């Protein structure tokens, strides 16, 4: 089985309008992308976005959104073969995780990792929330 994406995998730099925000007229810029499997077992895009035109500033929050929160794509960022390869790799990772979870004998990792607070975890892996 091949994992199939539901929706469009937008390019970095894409400009969006979102629902369920404080001000539905604000524009947001895609600064990071990922995919996830939702509760309906569909593979859907997820994004990290910042307000346009401010970008990443200490007084503005970087939002993590699902594709379902997008009401309008104002501008789609630059895309090339690298984007296609990135998406293929992400889909392969999801498919491999699903296949390994379906195996009867799943090896459990018994090694304990130290608990990290969110700031420490973000330093190590700034996109860890996308993998949750």
List the helices and strands and how they pair.
Elements: E1 15-18, E2 27-37, E3 43-52, E4 63-66, E5 70-75, H1 81-102, H2 118-124
Antiparallel strand pairs: 1-2, 1-5, 2-3, 3-4
Average pLDDT level = 81
The largest beta-sheet arranges its strands as: 4-3-2-1-5
The major β-sheet equals: 5 strands, antiparallel
Class of secondary structure makeup: alpha+beta
Instruction: Tell how many strands the DSSP assignment holds.
Output: 5
Low-confidence stretches: none
Integer count of domains: 1
Helix content: 10-25%
Order of helices and strands: EEEEEHH
Outline of the structure:
The chain is α+β, with helices and mostly antiparallel strands and 132 residues long.
Question: Care to describe what's here?
Answer:
The chain is of the alpha+beta class. Helix content is 22%, strand content 27%. The chain has one domain (15-98, 115-131). It is built from two helices and five strands, in the order E-E-E-E-E-H-H. A five-stranded antiparallel β-sheet has the order 4-3-2-1-5, covered by helices on one side. Strand 2 (27-37) and strand 3 (43-52) form a beta hairpin. The longest helix has 22 residues, at 81-102. It is globular, with a radius of gyration of 17 Å. The two termini are 23 Å apart.
């Amino acid at each position: 089985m091949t994992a199939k994406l539901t929706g469009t995998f937008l390019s970095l730099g894409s400009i969006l309008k979102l629902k369920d925000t404080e001000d539905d007229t604000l524009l947001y810029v895609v600064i990071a992308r990922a995919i996830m499997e939702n509760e309906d077992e569909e593979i859907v895009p997820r994004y990290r976005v910042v307000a346009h035109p401010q970008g990443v500033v200490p007084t503005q929050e970087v939002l993590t959104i699902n594709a379902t929160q997008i009401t309008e794509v104002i501008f789609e960022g630059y895309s090339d073969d690298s984007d296609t390869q990135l998406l293929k790799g992400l889909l392969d990772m999801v498919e491999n995780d699903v296949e390994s979870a379906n195996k009867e004998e799943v090896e459990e990792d018994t090694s304990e990792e130290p608990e990290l607070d969110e700031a420490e975890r973000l330093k190590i892996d700034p996109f860890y929330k996308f993998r949750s």
